[in-house]
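Key result, reporting period 2: structure in, sequence out.
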């Protein structure tokens, strides 16, 4: 009886907590619609600090920062939203608008068109969505195997074998896409520069040679870390070192 009461209290506490978070989301949206962007930011941040996160929440926070003129913060939260919902075109559109306002215009290294096509397909869904597709196609593969093993005619066996082969390939592909998206969430390998102007060094030290200058809002890839310094790479292939205080990991 005591155990049941304890479980009930936990569920009651959880329900109250969820309702409170929902109220804060509504309050944040209300502040945003009224043009009170600082209050909206504070409300959205309080929800994130309580442990709840979602693509919509990061997207709304990014919009509030964008309206407040805080470009690095807006880009950071748009990028975090995109990690959770890579298929969301609204996030991509707003993120592109924000990047267009940054000072650094970095040309990307050209990719083979098949690579771009493959990446665009992989970004059509998030990790959970691809995992569902993987499970469904694997079940269909098992059904195909069943028809192949127990079919009464050679035609049924041939068709079942073909379908089973297709579905197992789809299942493996979906699983690899799901793993990739999950890895992006767990292992954050990119960051946004928050310092207005920063000199990228040739070595992990303030006395290192200045290689080039970057500005706030620029996205960098994190290669390795030595002490308080990150070895970074830009989309054009240039590399250098930056102090960890100058960036925020996505």
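The corresponding designed sequence is given below.
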């Amino acid at each position: 009886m005591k155990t049941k009461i304890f479980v009930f209290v936990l569920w009651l506490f959880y329900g109250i907590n969820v309702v409170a978070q929902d109220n804060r989301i509504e309050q944040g949206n209300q502040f945003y619609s009224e043009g009170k962007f600082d209050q909206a930011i504070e409300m959205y941040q309080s929800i994130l600090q309580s442990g709840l996160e979602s693509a919509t929440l990061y997207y709304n926070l990014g919009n509030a920062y964008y309206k407040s003129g805080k470009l690095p913060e807006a880009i950071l939260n748009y990028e975090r939203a995109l990690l959770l919902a890579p298929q969301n075109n609204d996030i991509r559109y707003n993120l592109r608008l924000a990047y267009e306002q940054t000072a650094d215009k970095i040309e990307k290294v050209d990719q083979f068109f098949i690579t771009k096509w493959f990446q665009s397909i992989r970004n059509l869904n998030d990790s959970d969505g691809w995992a569902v597709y993987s499970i469904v196609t694997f079940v269909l593969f098992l059904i195909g195997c069943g028809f192949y093993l127990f079919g009464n005619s050679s035609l049924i066996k041939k068709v079942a074998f073909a379908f089973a082969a297709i579905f197992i390939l789809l299942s493996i592909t979906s699983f690899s896409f799901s793993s990739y998206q999950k890895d992006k969430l767990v292992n954050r390998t990119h960051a946004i520069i928050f310092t207005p102007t920063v000199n990228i060094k040739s070595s992990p030290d303030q006395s290192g040679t200045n290689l080039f200058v970057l500005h706030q809002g620029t996205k960098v890839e994190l290669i390795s870390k030595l002490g308080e310094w990150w070895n970074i790479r830009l989309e054009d292939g240039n590399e250098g070192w930056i102090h960890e205080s100058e960036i925020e990991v996505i």
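DSSP finds eight helices and seven strands in the chain. Confidence is low (pLDDT under 50) at residues 1-20. This case is discussed further under Risks and Mitigation.
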